[in-house]
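A quick aside before the break. I want you to see a complete sequence-to-structure record at least once, exactly as it would be stored in a machine-readable document. Don't worry about memorizing anything.
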Amino acid sequence: MNAHVGLLEQVLPQWRRAVLKVGSNLLAADGGGLTPRYAEALAAFIAASHAAGRQVVLVSSGAVAAGRALLRERKPAGDALVARQALAALGQAPMIALWQSLSARPVAQVLLTHDDLRNRRRYLNARATLRELLALDVLPVVNENDTVAVDELKLGDNDNLAAIVAALVDADLLLIASDVDALYSADPRRDPDAVPVAHVAALTPQVLAMAGGSGSTAGTGGMRTKLEAAVKASAAGIPSVLFSGRDEATVQALQHGRLRGTLIAAASSRMQARKYWLRHAPAAPGCIRVDAGAAQALAGGRVSLLPGGVLGAEGEFHRGDLVEIVDAADKAIARGLSQYGAAEVRRLAGRHSREIDTVLGYSYGAEVVHRDDLITMDHPVAPDQEISA
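That is the input. The structure line, written in tokens, reads:
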């Protein structure tokens, strides 16, 4: 779907560093392996941007599709997850080789997992690595490490990964190349009256409702995941653009600061980097359940969670993990870094902070989750306070 007649060209936001996400539907030939057909124009855009003094981090899908093509005569054995992991392992090399063949600069592969983004220390290590690669004039090619990821720990799609990477490297812009040229008011494949949307000022529920499902068998995401990614980028103060990676003229226009697609504005205020990470990084399996008093206090402002407000813990998580905090009705009300593991939280539930050392034989502090490591779902401004036992 190229350059819809109703889609006007507009000015691309100024940027110095951008994250470009390229999906499988632009890299994988129908029923075959990887092809440079659309990747060439995108690689030329990256090269032109670099020549102009800008930096680009590439988030690229395509490994599973490449692996599948290499085993065309042999269907992988095992369950779907194991087969996908094997195909990803097989296809990573040709995917990186494709981008290296199109780049005069060195290409570095960066594989990230759910745990890399959930663990604050590893998150910051990934950030430092990507920044150093950019400083060395290397093109980082990021992908989810499907080879080791399991379903319950997967990021799910590279659209959302790209948004997290954009915040990780302090990008000015998130570019999402797709096989459609813009966000439409409805699915244009089903609704002949659907019209392209050139500018989105805010990602309201009505805008999110415009998104349909995945448009190809090669990719895992659709327009919905692209808008979800834009929500994450917007929260970090990063605008997003959706454009057709199949239309060479559209890609070339980007080199000249012109967009033929959808521009999604950033939120007016930029979340602190740590608070952004707490809100959007993948949480550990499980949760901390709190009583009505604790839930009310958490919803009211910047607080710490003490053992007295805790009803219990579900699942298995460890000290330092990012976990969701839910009320008695299973509504998520906050997220934060737990000072204690799940087994310890269960033992401390309902206790006073001064009992921690007696119950456990040691103490990591009076709080189960400290207010500096916690963000509520609505995070309104309120005086500092504690949830007392």
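Two observations worth writing down. Residues 80-101 form the longest helix (22 residues). The chain has 14 helices and 19 strands. We'll return to this after the break.
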